[in-house]
Amino acid sequence: MADRDLADLGRELPWDEPDAERVEQVRTALLTKAPKPQEPRPPRRRYHWLLLAAAVVCGIALFWPRTDAVPPRNVATLHPGAGARFTRVGTPGDDIVRLTDGELTVEVLHLELGERFRVITGDAEVEVRGTAFDVRVEHDALRSVRVLHGRVEVRHAGHPAVILAAGESWRSAAETPRTDVAPPAASVAPPTARPAAATPSAVSVARRYRGEPTIKGQEAAPAPVPAVEPTPQASSAQKGDEAAFREGYDALRTGDNGRAEQAFAKASRSGTLAEDATYWRAVSLMRGGH
User: What ranges in the chain are assigned the alpha helix state H?
Assistant: First the structure.
């Protein structure tokens, strides 16, 4: 039986139309028993969670141990000569200058415990602790070191380490005068007898300077002295040459290369000091940049 047939049968059944009061009673009862709609909950505010997270981050940043890295200090000042070739390598606390050619003057501050400063060549290493010094290298080989103040340790391959104090110098066995320096114009007189003296002569002073410090196998043998009878007293010309030689030697040690070159040129004109004066004149010219 279809739904339409049922509806038709229902309309045929007898029924009484309820009055308005009864309808209102039924309506009221239904509304009373119906479940009340729930009031919508207010949205949960989440901003307090954001505030809490920000407070945690600030607390961590405040109490986290600081590890600010202190930049390494510059312990050395370099004054390169003309044509010097070098690179600065190493790590903080272990400063290294790799010098391959030329002359370099270095001023090093007083180093703290654990700090090092070194100049390294192909065959040697120079280490300092608060000093100023000159170092010269040719073709990656150490040629000479001169200490202005402080102390320097020279470690040359195949030789024991040497400590140099202020005013002392070191020179390798391969060090020779430069060939591009013109010889003195004045002619050199034949060697004369060396005067006897109670104090060391300028020649002996110069030879001691060449060998400072004495390293086995690196000091040149002194030139043979001709077997001539010494004269009883030195001539005035010899005294002048010796005075000029001493003046040049003192000027060279104090770094006055120009005055040293002039004094050695005067001493190299004649006499027994000519050979030594010619050599030291060449050294003065070289250090002066000629």
Answer: 3-12, 20-33, 47-63, 202-210, 236-253, 257-267, 274-287
Q: Rounded to an integer, what distance in angstroms lies between the CA atom of residue 181 and that of residue 284? A: 10
Tally of residues, the chain: 290
Token look-up 């010219």 returns 285
Strand partners, 142: 137
Is residue 268 within 8 A of residue 274, CB to CB? The reply is yes
What pLDDT was estimated at residue 31? 58
Q: Give pLDDT, residue 63.
A: 63
Give me 48's structure tokens: 């307090």
pLDDT higher than 50, residue 225: no
Angle (CA) 88 90 96, round 5°: 55
Class of domain 76-171: mainly beta
CA gap 195, 1 in Å, rounded: 160
Contact 158, 133 (CB under 8 A): no
Interval 89-130: pLDDT, tens:
877 778 888 999 999 888 887 777 778 888 889 888 888 766
Domain ranges (residues) in the chain: 76-171, 177-186+204-211+235-290
Residue that has been written with the tokens 């150490």 in this structure: 142
The residue behind tokens 């945690």 is 56
